[in-house]
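Give me the fold.
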Amino acid sequence: MRILAIESSCDETAAAVIEDGRKIISSVINTQVAEHGLYGGVVPEIASRRHTENIVGVAEKALGDAGMELSEVDAFGVTAAPGLIGALLVGVNFAKGLSLATGKPLVPVHHLRSHIAANYLAHPELEPPFLCLVVSGGHSHIVEVSDYTKFKILGKTRDDAAGEAFDKAARAMGLPYPGGVFLDKEAAKGDPKAYKLPKPKVEGCPLDMSFSGLKTAVVNILHNAKQRGEEVNIPDLCASYQNVICHALVDRLMLAAEEGGYKTVVAAGGVSANSGLRALLERECKRRHLRLFVPPLELCGDNAAMVGSQAYYEAKEGHFADLSLNARPTMPIDEDF
């Protein structure tokens, strides 16, 4: 089965052709990072307009790179939730139009499920069940993946996601957008023990996370230093901050793996590209003799290839949609469309 997949949940307009959920035939991404960088973050109205302008060209290029005609596509997969509602609507309505025009099936895909599926493209040997840490700009989840379309949330953030915490702290430090990337680079030059920061935890819920207080602690350090006329060692602060967040994520993942008896651990989402997180995951999994799978950097961020992979498994379960499909800004990963 060859699926033309569409992704437009945030600030990347992407299309890809995926075969049987495991093979990338083509993948095209049009990013808006430079434009949103002017404002220090994604502007939803601008993102929606750019998706509208770019989506036809991106889809045509994905088909062209695959050497295929639209009539040769077996189904259309599209990110329908969660994300920026205006951005999602562009992709959903475009995919609905393709389905209506060709009579081919329409497969709605959950954005976080597709991030997990990015690993299927990179690691042919990976199959459920496994435990997955899903970390992105808007989400931080520990998810039990019992099958390709069966998920259970074991732990999650109660406030800010890890990616959001990285980006907001980076902005407060005066780092360029996208903040998490530049914070990671600065952290590589710093001492992770230079600043004493609070270790986030949620009483009574050992697998849940909270990053809001940690972010506030960094902002307070910056404000207090400014009031006293003192210099802040940015690389040291970045390293200390990143170290606490990574340990909060990995320590909980290891606890969940131990409690559930899991031997295979997976990371997914944009923050899985963070060098500190990847290094800590490798170290802790090696120490516990766990198999670890992480996507290559090019599949960590938003892309349509991962959407096409998950769409294949959703289609196998008969999870299709008709033209009444609507986009949803929020939706739990364990809920079907």
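The two ends are 21 Å apart (CA to CA).
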